[in-house]
Amino acid sequence: MYTSFQNISDKARIWVYQANRMILSEESVLIEDRMKSFIEQWTAHGNQLYASAKVTEDYFLMVALDENVSQASGCSIDASVHFIQELQHSMNIDFFDRTKVVLEIGNDRIQQDLGEVAEAIKSGKIEPTVSTYNNLISYKEQLTSEWKIPLRNSWLKKYFSQKNTIA
User: Fold this and answer.
1) Is the pTM higher than 0.90?
2) Is the pLDDT of residue 118 over 80?
3) Contact 37, 83 (CB under 8 A)
């Protein structure tokens, strides 16, 4: 059963899918409509799942599932992944490209290849206070404190330690 994203429990399990390009506003509407249709029929072992989805921050598709209402199964999770794969193919958006990083610099969000970000950090062009997104969060409640984080607190922090070792 579909519910609005703001109404789903903060304890809901969450999956964050980052697009390989900016998602246009009209695409956001289409993605959310198609996700709503999918969620309306999404089940695990015959039980309706209580879930939501939304596009946010120009680059991210989030799927939230309240497992206090009904538990996901491996097959139901696979079904959601397959649906998102179908969605990406029909819209020419890749939600499984792990070679891109979204940065928030001031009021702007930009996406760069990981190699470019690593080099910019090493050369001092990007500061440790620039924000990025931790797409490995597991629960909706983590969106407020663990999703958008400074680079110095992300897995990219290793490139700051290499900053002074450039020859």
Assistant:
1) yes
2) yes
3) no
